[in-house]
Amino acid sequence: MASPPESPIEEIVYELEQTRVPKPIPVALEDLCRQTKFTKQEIRVMYRGFKTECPEGVVHEDCFKDIYAKFFPHGNSSLYAHYVFKAFDVNCNGAISFRDLLVTLSTLLRGSVYERLRWTFKLYDLNGDGRISRSELSEIIMAIHELMGRRAHQPEDDRKARDQVDRVFRKLDLNQDGIITIEEFLEACLKDDLVTRSLQMFDNDL
């Protein structure tokens, strides 16, 4: 016979209400199971950790950047963390709720290759117009270089970054019209064994 829940919180998790002042409102655990590819037990475990680290029930950008900085202490992670935060912020309200976090992690950890690539495209599409321009790709790649500890505005590092932008853009812009569409992005990435292998590395349990 299954033991009863330790507390009501094990059967309820919270999300942000769409108001100027966020308020926690109850969401059935079953709803999150349907919306994600996690089990009830996995959601309970993640929720406990989330509430421990974020007692307010949401993650704001400054806190998100602090977390990123701990993982990349030798680089400047601020700009890249900003872009990732925007991609996690599903409701575009400046805060990541537990639901936002869970939905995104479900895509990245349990989603299909297509779903993961679509999320990556969204990350790179900085202005959200459904296309990736050369300048957007350049901003992302420069942010990654800073994240990895490469110095900005150093001639040699800047040259390497520009070369990488040119190389990647040519590879993704299949019709060479100066814009990368989602269709081009998917087709080019799926043909690249390195990309598909890196995505498949996440095919495991938490």
TrEMBL record:
Source species of the chain: Stomoxys calcitrans (Stable fly)
Q: What SUPFAM superfamilies does this protein map onto? A: EF-hand (SSF47473)
PROSITE patterns in the cross-refs: EF_HAND_1, EF_HAND_2
Q: Which residues form the EF-hand domain?
A: 76-111, 112-147, 160-195
Which CDD domains does this entry report, sorted A to Z?
A: EFh
Keyword Heme in annotation: no
Gene Ontology molecular function, alphabetical: calcium ion binding
In Swiss-Prot or TrEMBL terms, this protein is called EF-hand domain-containing protein
